[in-house]
Amino acid sequence: MSGVVDAGYSVFSAQNGTAAKVTQSGIGYSNNDTSRFQIKAVEDIGSGIKAGTTIESTLASNPRSNFGDATKPVAASTTNFDLTGRGQTIDAAKLGDRILTADLTVGAHTINAGNQAIITRSVAVGFQADGSNFIGNLVGNDGNTTARVPAINYTFNAGHGVNLSAAYMNNTKKNSTAADTSKTGNGYGLKAEYANGPWAAGAVVSKQTTNDALTATAVATTKLTTQLLSPVGTVGTAAKNVELTMAVLGVSYDFAPVKVYGQYATVENKDTLSTTYANSDKRHAMSAGARYAIGDSYLFAQVSTGKNQITGTNTDRDWKGYSLGYKHYLSKRTLAYVGAGKAEFGTGATTKSTVKETAFGLQHNF
Description:
The chain has 366 residues and is mostly beta strands. The chain contains 1 helix and 21 strands. The protein has one helix spanning 121-126; strands spanning 2-16, 22-29, 36-46, 49-58, 99-106, 109-117, 148-159, 162-169, 172-173, 182-183, 186-196, 199-211, 214-216, 233-235, 241-254, 258-271, 281-294, 297-309, 317-329, 334-346, 352-365. The radius of gyration is 21 Å and the shape is globular.
């Protein structure tokens, strides 16, 4: 069993144009890293075969899902923002909300089946100079590139620091009398990663399809989401069919004591049944940053810039952010941190949404 507990004090603020600013502050979790626990069991069957399971659950709200690109006005309001990214109390999260997989390794081949990180996440998160949840990295804080999905992942260790991976995602429901088939995140992903000496790099592409063919019954309002459910919903005619296409690149080089990082990502949600962009958005961003090691500590800084087409438009708006801070390891398992970040994106010809964060805290890995 292992895990992370990250607690500290944080201040967040969000504002759209000249509208009222919303601020949330107080004792919170997961400012630097997501508080969580993991149970992992492995059985060595012999002849290079290992089987087991991984169960990982969140101890506080997933911060990456609500900041970065996802820091947008709630519903139709332009004055209220979703600032629930770092919960001030422990959530009653379901078991395995981060990872719930059956794992099999045969020599250089590994299969993980079940709820797990989407295939783009390791590249989106793994090449961040801040190595944290701080606001400001438009690639690592994107709710799409870092999501959790039910999938079958295959990884081949090719040697010399090279790993090749593929993912298959399928969450389908059909009704023999319905016009359409319900799809939730159906698709595939391909990834290549390299780590050897001072160099590390990754490249990944992914495509998924989601529609709204599933409708709730009068008795139950639960819809088909992350797991295949019992027949509590009916399948009707889809009014939208959203194709999510993503590509993420990452690279790092350790000059010692300075380590530099670079990232690029593009994300597009396209509704193939609509020409009004009501269910579509598109964005791309690049990020560059560095860490400077000082004994058991390091300083970090990174900047991001890109373009963003918010839902309902096809116009590019500026999208940028930054984060900076300091981390000090008190031991191999415990660190103290302080940092700040900012992200902003244009919502109109002369308006923009701005989100800021300042936080400090203590993180213990067990």
